[in-house]
Structures are given as C-alpha cells and as structure tokens.
C-alpha cells in the first residue's frame, strides 16, 4: 500500500531536524520560504525552502522540501521506464547542499525522494531514490572513511549488497565525463528503487536520510576551526566550478526540476555562492591541492563492506 502522507510527514520532519542541527553548529538562522504552485500549469503543489547565506560555518546552505503533481512525467524521469512516458505523477523529496566557508570542511549533498506515476489502467507505480555524497577541497582519509562507514552502516539492515552496489552507482553517477574526474569522494546513490516493496524501500530511504547528520557533523567539528588563507579559498572556488558544471550538465535532479517546470530558485539553491575557472590549470606536484587529485578524486574502497 502506498502511504504518501507518511512519506510527506517523514520528509518534513527530516528537513526540520537537519536545519536545527546546522543552525546550532553555525550560530545563524535559516530563512524559511514557503511557496505554492496553483493548478493550471505544468506543475501544482507546494514546498518549503530553507536557506542560509553568509553564516559562520555555511557560506551558503540550502535544504528544500517539495511536494508536486504534474500532468506528464518529464523525459529525465522515464529514461529507465519508457512505459510510463506521459503518465501523470506525484513527487516529493528533501534535497540539501551545504557549502561551508572553510575550505577544509567539505561540501555535502543529500537527496531523498519518492515518485509515484499514475498509469492509464489505474495502477500507481511508486519508486524511491536518494543518497548522499561528500565533496572535499582538501582531502582527509579519516573523513572519507567516516562518511562511507556511516553510509555502509545505514544500509546494512537492508542487505549486504546495498552499500557496495550504491557506492559504485554513486562513483559512476557523480562523475564529470567531460573532465574525466569524479566530483568528490562519493558516498551512496540509488534511483528508481522499489525492489523491497513500498514499506521496505521507504524504510531504506529513511535510513539514508537519517544518516546525514551522523555522517557529516563529526567532519565539520574536526575541520571548521582550521586556519586558511587566500590560497585555500582560491582552490575552493576553482573546485566549486566543477560542482557547478556537474549540476548544470549532468545532474538528473536538476534536469527533472527544470524540465517539469519546477521552481527555479529552489532548484538552483544548490549552487555555490562563488566559483572560479582557470584555463588549463594543474596543481603543483607535491602540494595538498595535487594530493586531492592523486589520492581522493578516484574511486576507492574507503571502508570494507559488511
């Protein structure tokens, strides 16, 4: 049985818990921006965008909830389910990206979502997606291992195959093909997931959402007081350029939102506050910047599977 109200209640509670924890860490306040889409357009529904800019910890951070309905699934949602092309749909989720001020604190992204398509024969086809991934500017082995161990442990109750499978999916998905490099050190990612039935798939998605704070806050607390200067900020801006490239060129979530007529301001809330590009630049050998490429921006088994 599909209980969309239970999914909605969970997602709103998750958003509130995450925002409260980051406010406590940052010392600043997230603004609340409620929005609605009235019937008659490509989408109808509502959402709640939570955003902080210029914080002590977070230079920019967004955590957005949306619950929308549309007349026809966009192409980005049916590339693996062509039989549902054109079907009316309902989608809800929480998506977040936190861009810290200190270059030694990594950017983190998380998304958990449910999508339900209404077939012409009356059947409702429901699936889940989600995951979380880490994008460091300066690499620390213990941070990557902790983040991956948190992902592994969250998925362990749902089968020994889930973490290795979703880690590989994450490594392959968050990859800039035009640069031939990963976006960061990965994490876990899954989409079009329904193999555990509604209840089991929803429970797995809750486990992923609930793991975000345990995976990220210890890293924040270890790194946020490290001193930095213009060199580190410049490299952070350069690497943030890669983040922009991925989101605008390859990210299915961004494409889904824009193709379905979603709220542009909320969709692009994931963008960093500042980014930079350099022509044909390479880090100097032996530097911490070079080590990011040699030791971290490549698929690795950061922890052993369960």
Explain the overall architecture:
The protein is an alpha+beta fold. The protein has a single domain, classed as oxygen-dependent coproporphyrinogen oxidase (3-Layer(aba) Sandwich), CATH 3.40.1500. 40% of the residues lie in helices and 26% in strands. α1 runs parallel beside α5 and α3 packs antiparallel against α5. The longest helix has 27 residues. The model has no long low-confidence stretch (mean pLDDT 92).
Strands, helices and their partners?
Layout: H1 4-26, E1 31-37, E2 43-53, E3 58-70, H2 75-78, E4 89-100, E5 107-118, E6 124-135, H3 141-155, H4 162-173, E7 175-176, E8 181-182, E9 186-193, H5 197-223, H6 230-249, H7 252-259, H8 264-267, H9 288-296
Helix pairs in contact: 1-5, 3-5
GO biological process, one term: protoporphyrinogen IX biosynthetic process
Catalytic activity: coproporphyrinogen III + O2 + 2 H(+) = protoporphyrinogen IX + 2 CO2 + 2 H2O
Family: Belongs to the aerobic coproporphyrinogen-III oxidase family.
């Amino acid at each position: 049985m599909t209980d969309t109200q239970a999914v909605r209640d969970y997602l709103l509670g998750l958003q509130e818990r995450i925002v409260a924890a980051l406010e406590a860490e940052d010392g600043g306040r997230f603004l609340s921006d409620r929005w609605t889409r009235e019937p008659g357009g490509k989408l109808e529904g509502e959402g709640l965008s939570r955003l902080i800019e210029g914080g002590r910890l977070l230079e920019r951070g967004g955590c957005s909830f949306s619950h929308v309905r549309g007349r026809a699934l966009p192409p980005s949602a049916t590339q693996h389910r062509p039989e549902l092309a054109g079907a009316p749909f309902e989608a809800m989720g929480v998506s977040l990206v936190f861009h810290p001020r200190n270059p030694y604190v990594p950017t983190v992204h998380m998304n958990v979502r449910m999508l339900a398509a209404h077939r012409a024969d009356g059947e409702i086809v429901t699936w889940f997606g989600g995951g979380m991934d880490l994008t460091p500017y300066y690499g620390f082995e213990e941070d990557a291992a902790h983040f991956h161990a948190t992902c592994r442990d969250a998925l362990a109750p749902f089968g020994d195959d889930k973490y290795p499978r979703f880690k590989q999916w994450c490594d392959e998905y968050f990859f800039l093909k035009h640069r031939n490099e990963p976006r960061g050190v990965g994490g876990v990612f899954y989409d079009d997931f329904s193999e555990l039935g509604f209840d089991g798939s929803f429970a797995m998605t809750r486990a992923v959402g609930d793991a975000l704070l345990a995976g990220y806050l210890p890293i924040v607390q270890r790194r946020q007081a490290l001193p930095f200067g213009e060199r580190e900020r410049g490299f952070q801006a350069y690497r943030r350029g890669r983040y922009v490239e991925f989101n605008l060129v390859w990210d299915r979530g961004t494409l889904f939102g824009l193709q379905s007529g979603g709220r542009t301001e909320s969709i692009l809330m994931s963008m960093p506050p500042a980014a930079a590009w350099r022509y044909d630049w390479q880090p100097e050998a032996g530097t911490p910047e070079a080590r990011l490429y040699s030791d971290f921006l490549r698929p690795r088994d950061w922890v052993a599977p369960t």
